[in-house]
């Protein structure tokens, strides 16, 4: 008030107008104070804010129009996310659609004067919809079910009462539901294991998988697209309980990607990373028979439990085919695979520096001495006989059994006793490593000699000394006449 009165004396030309404004302000303040006091006397509480609660809104969207918009948006058919059906209920519409196109279709169908802003507000507020299918490697079985239902629905449009078509549709729907429930079982068990690993110090839940191939040299030159490059392998091990990530990296001259490589890297992880206090571990991996789901890996886990007595229990979980998304895929997604690198060691650095938050990725460069011939050793000293079986768990607890094995357990125990007697031979056999580098193909070696010209001179010697089909670099040069073409 003092400020307003001061302004009145400073501007005498507008004193009359300003006095009217001051009077109106006083009346408003007196009325507001009176309403507040009256409400407190009547109910003991101040009055509620009634702004926006009136019904004199001529441009308000009626409930009928609101429901009409919702019905039109709901009529579009989309897909749920392939991997996370229960984590998110987001619906994905085709990538060629957008809100503007959907609004144009609404106007064409109804033309009731609804604005685009109103339509977009309802779309964003009442629905969880995105555009474009987030699926790059979909399940073949799910795609087969989808195609079958699509074809049957088209036939039912022409013959809705066809009993044979209705029966076929019911069968496909039942099989699809069973397939999806099986796929969800894997993720449910993984979630439960993750919770258990966070709670117990004696238990670990681990996911592992090979990642996308990286290539050297990685350059932007057009010639790279027409030449063979050196493959770099990276094996990812993700601790679900702590989110610690270990990468085991090597190039194709050091090792391959078979069961022996998987067993060797898991052995290195178990012996060097997993604490001795951990006595139970659950592994989650895909069903690749050449790497994970084979006798070598099963025998290796059995060896850890019953021969080395490293763990009391090991459990392995395999997902339904096509539903194998794991944390390993998320780990590798943040690696900049478009980086320009010249040597495999540079890829190791890119992986190590990929994750900025949490703990950085731990990268181990695998050498020749790290790869063991587990297939030859474990087949020679196999703890259980060759037979068809469904592998689920290995447990060394009292009275435990090997669930799913079809052979008699007595035969298994006999093999186990023989294996324990030869533990001294075990150490000797496993200490033997490959005597020579894996050889690259002759054609690939020639391509690498072409690509090295795009690299710094310090890297040329590395590519020149790569082993290749038993030929020395000089001999190859003589045979090819020094040509750079394939």
From TrEMBL:
Residues covered by region (Disordered): 42-63, 466-486
* All copies of domain DUF7869, residue ranges: 256-339
Locate the compositionally biased regions of type Basic and acidic residues: 475-486
Q: What Pfam families does the record tag this protein with?
A: DUF7869
Stretches assigned to coiled coil:
none
Where is composition skewed (Basic residues) in this entry? 50-59
Q: Which InterPro entries match?
A: DUF7869 (IPR057191)
Name the record gives this protein: DUF7869 domain-containing protein
């Amino acid at each position: 008030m003092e400020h307003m009165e001061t302004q009145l004396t400073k501007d005498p030309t507008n004193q009359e107008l300003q006095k009217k404004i001051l009077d109106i302000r006083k009346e408003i303040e007196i009325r507001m104070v009176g309403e507040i006091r009256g409400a407190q006397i009547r109910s003991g509480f101040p009055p509620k804010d009634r702004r926006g609660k009136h019904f004199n809104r001529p441009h308000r969207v009626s409930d009928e129009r609101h429901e009409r918009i919702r019905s039109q948006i709901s009529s579009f058919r989309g897909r749920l996310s392939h991997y996370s059906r229960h984590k998110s209920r987001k619906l994905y519409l085709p990538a060629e659609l957008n809100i503007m196109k959907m609004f144009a279709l609404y106007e064409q169908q109804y033309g009731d004067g609804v604005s685009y802003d109103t339509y977009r507000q309802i779309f964003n507020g009442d629905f969880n919809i995105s555009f474009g299918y987030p699926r790059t490697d979909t399940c073949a079985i799910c795609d087969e079910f989808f195609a079958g239902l699509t074809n049957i629905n088209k036939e039912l449009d022409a013959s809705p009462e066809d009993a044979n078509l209705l029966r076929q549709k019911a069968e496909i729907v039942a099989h699809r539901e069973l397939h999806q429930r099986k796929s969800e079982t894997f993720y449910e068990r993984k979630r439960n294991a993750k919770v258990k690993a966070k709670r117990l110090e004696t238990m670990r839940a681990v996911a592992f998988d090979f990642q996308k191939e990286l290539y050297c040299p990685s350059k932007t030159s057009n010639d790279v697209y027409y030449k063979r490059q050196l493959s770099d392998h990276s094996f990812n091990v993700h601790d679900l309980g702590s989110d610690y990530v270990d990468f085991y990296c090597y190039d194709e001259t050091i090792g391959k990607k078979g069961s022996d490589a998987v067993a060797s890297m898991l052995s290195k992880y178990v012996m060097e990373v997993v604490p001795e206090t951990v006595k139970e571990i659950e592994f989650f991996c895909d069903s690749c028979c050449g790497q994970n789901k084979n006798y070598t890996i099963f025998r290796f886990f059995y060896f850890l439990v019953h021969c080395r007595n490293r763990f009391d229990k090991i459990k392995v979980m395999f997902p339904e085919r096509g539903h194998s998304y794991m944390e390993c895929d998320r780990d590798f997604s943040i690696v900049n695979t478009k980086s320009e690198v010249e040597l495999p060691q540079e890829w190791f650095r890119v992986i190590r520096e990929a994750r900025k938050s949490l703990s950085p990725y731990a990268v181990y460069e695998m050498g020749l001495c790290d790869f063991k011939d587990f297939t030859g050793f474990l087949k020679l000293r196999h703890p259980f006989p060759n037979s068809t079986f469904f592998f689920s768990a290995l447990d060394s607890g009292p009275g435990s059994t090997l669930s799913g094995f079809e052979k008699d357990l007595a035969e298994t125990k006999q093999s186990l006793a023989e294996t324990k007697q030869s533990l001294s031979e075990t150490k000797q056999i496993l200490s033997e490593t490959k005597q020579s580098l894996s050889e690259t193909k002759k054609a690939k070696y020639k391509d690498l000699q072409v690509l090295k010209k795009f690299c710094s001179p310090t890297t040329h010697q590395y590519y020149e000394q790569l082993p290749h089909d038993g030929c020395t670099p000089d001999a190859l040069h003589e045979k090819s006449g020094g040509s750079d073409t394939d």
